[in-house]
Amino acid sequence: MKVVLAQEILRANDQLAELNRQRFTESRVFVVNVLGSPGAGKTTLLEALARVWQTRVRMGVIEGDLAGTVDAERIERLGLAVVQINTAGACHLDASMIATAADRLPLSDLDFLFIENVGNLVCPANFRLGEHLRLLLLSVPEGDDKPIKYPVIFRDLGAVIVSKIDLRPYLPFEVSKIHQQLQVLCPAARLFEVSALKGDGVEEVAKFLECERAEFFAKTDRPHAQAVV
Amino acid sequence: MKVVLAQEILRANDQLAELNRQRFTESRVFVVNVLGSPGAGKTTLLEALARVWQTRVRMGVIEGDLAGTVDAERIERLGLAVVQINTAGACHLDASMIATAADRLPLSDLDFLFIENVGNLVCPANFRLGEHLRLLLLSVPEGDDKPIKYPVIFRDLGAVIVSKIDLRPYLPFEVSKIHQQLQVLCPAARLFEVSALKGDGVEEVAKFLECERAEFFAKTDRPHAQAVV
Fold first, then answer.
1. What is the pLDDT of residues B86-126, one digit of tens each?
2. Chain A: which residues have CB within 8 Å of chain B?
């Protein structure tokens, strides 16, 4: 009974997520669901991307937190369009929250919309929001055993970003272990090493995202391209 | 409807947690629910406590993870009694899992039983396991804004342990901010600063736990002491 209910909730969420995605695609905004533990550096990465892109690439942000507006205030200080969702205790964002938040954003004026999920390596995994891509941040201090312990969220990712790489001299962490584990869990995912605080590696992530966006909309514009070729 | 169901689940869990707690108290084992984000250093703290206590204080461990046995293997290498719970995707431990795991531990031979919860600052907050005390680890790299963002789990704690304190020279983190936020959320909680990897501060935590245990069983043995005095 409990399982059926959970499945029903997930099915309803999936349907709404698909509607969100259609809406985002029509507005030509590429939507990225940003996942990671509390304090993995999600907001700091978004700040660093905004500094790389300046006015050349237009980004908006939806911030998800149980409470407070700390992260949204940080994004707002950069002059970006931002909406804060307070989940009132809930452990993940869902598609209906995103539908409501999207109403308050100038979607057609954006190239990218980043959805910063609640800091959590478990619950957000199963809830699609309508995103085109999932990014997962794993910070060096969290340790290189996280894919073994939290395998579900390491599936179906566009990229894993190993963050706070500047702390590697002080901590035991082997990026090769993450690479090996990704070969099993999500071989298609790209792997980046970043220090968002110092700016190292952020340009590579920015380029990757621009390519993913361009590729996605090229396919959308020419849906039968593959058949023609 | 959803809310009622959630409340029923929590009520049933609370009842079972109370039975667990009675059983632990009768066995004179003091049970500590160890909470924190993925990679906050929960297992490393338990390893450090075992090194401080050696054979003088007897500790057992229940490890909670979505998958794998990485942490239980680490504890086993120290020669301690340990049971691994795999939650098969669930985001927190509950009282029924603990009842089952406790059957496999020599409770009466232990002074302390540590339950290392799933790494998660959200979901474990509402699920009592039968513990006598809750410890929350917050690592320096996670940032000093976590009580604002995850207030629920910062309530009803015996202590907050600021871990990985050796990384403070490299990161922005003010312990005074945690202190201020705890004054609002949980004024009774003690605050410790620890580097479990280097051993700094672990003896203070060990002493605190020993005192809490002694005080608890002194009260249990003389339930009307306060009235008599």
1. 988 889 999 999 999 999 999 999 999 999 999 999 999 99
2. 5, 37-39, 65-68, 70-71, 89-91, 118-123, 139-143, 145-146, 148-152, 164, 166-167, 170-171
